[in-house]
Design goal:
The protein has 223 residues and is an alpha/beta fold. It has one domain: Rossmann fold (3-Layer(aba) Sandwich), CATH 3.40.50.300. Helices cover 36% and strands 19% of the residues. It is built from seven helices and seven strands, in the order H-H-E-E-H-E-E-H-E-H-E-H-E-H. Strands 1-3-4-2-5-6-7 form a seven-stranded mixed beta sheet, sandwiched between helices. The chain is globular and about 45 Å long. Residues 46-221 form the EngB-type G domain. Belongs to the TRAFAC class TrmE-Era-EngA-EngB-Septin-like GTPase superfamily. EngB GTPase family.
């Protein structure tokens, strides 16, 4: 009698069929589309958009590059005032990845902060093809007051969002387990929060397959 091979637990099809779908989707050729300093410069709504947002220096550009397997994709649009722009990337007509401006300007003039808030609020409320916002939180520090503000904004705009804990490789396992539990508790009663949290590391690749799979699943659900 011949034993039937059992797929290993770490094989994509044995865990989640969207792991392979996500890998192939993000392995495609990505292109910079446009940089929009205000909503007047937004590209036409086409297909599904997924956005990334987080505090300045939380690792957004690194995550974009790691997800897409590119070295400098997130830097192709660097121009003066980049922190005030929404950066759009596309690999296929039906999917756009949006790099939103970093928030938490420690030294930025108030008028720039106000302009950022107006642009982001208008984008969140008016972009009907925006499927989900992934909010990047520094895994070493967890959700801070400035992060709570953007979560409040997303809740009020009724935009689905999920938490991505970055730099998780820089936290001890026991400390990170506590950080994860703390984060789950903070979003538990938030109306627009997706329950799953995604620990990641752009340096080691930890969590990137799962994040790609989650985005691929989201696109499939949106048709």
């Amino acid at each position: 009698m011949t034993d039937t091979p059992v797929p290993a637990a770490d094989e994509p099809d044995a865990v989640d069929p969207f792991l392979e779908t996500g890998r192939l989707m993000f392995a495609a050729e990505w292109q910079f589309v446009t940089a929009a300093p205000t909503t007047e410069f937004l590209p036409p709504m086409q297909g599904v958009e997924v956005a990334l947002v987080g505090r300045s220096n939380v690792g957004k550009s690194s995550l974009v590059n790691a997800l897409t397997g590119r070295t400098h994709l997130a830097r192709t649009s660097v121009t003066p005032g980049r922190t005030q722009e929404l950066i759009f990337f596309r690999a296929q007509p039906e999917f756009m990845l949006v790099d939103m401006p970093g928030y938490g300007f420690a030294k930025a003039p108030k008028d720039k902060v106000d302009a950022w808030v107006r642009t982001i609020r208008a984008y969140l409320r008016g972009r009907v093809n925006l499927a989900r916002v992934f909010v990047l939180i520094d895994g070493r520090h967890g959700i801070k007051a400035v992060d709570e503000e953007i979560l409040d904004l997303l809740d009020k705009a009724a935009v689905s969002y999920a938490i991505v804990l970055t730099k998780s490789d820089q936290v001890k396992t026991t400390e990170f387990a506590a950080r994860l539990k703390e984060t789950q508790e903070k979003i538990r009663r938030r109306p627009a929060a997706y329950p799953e949290i995604f620990p990641t590391s752009s340096e080691t690749g930890k969590g990137l397959p799962e994040l790609r799979a989650a985005i691929a699943r989201l696109l499939a659900e949106r048709g």
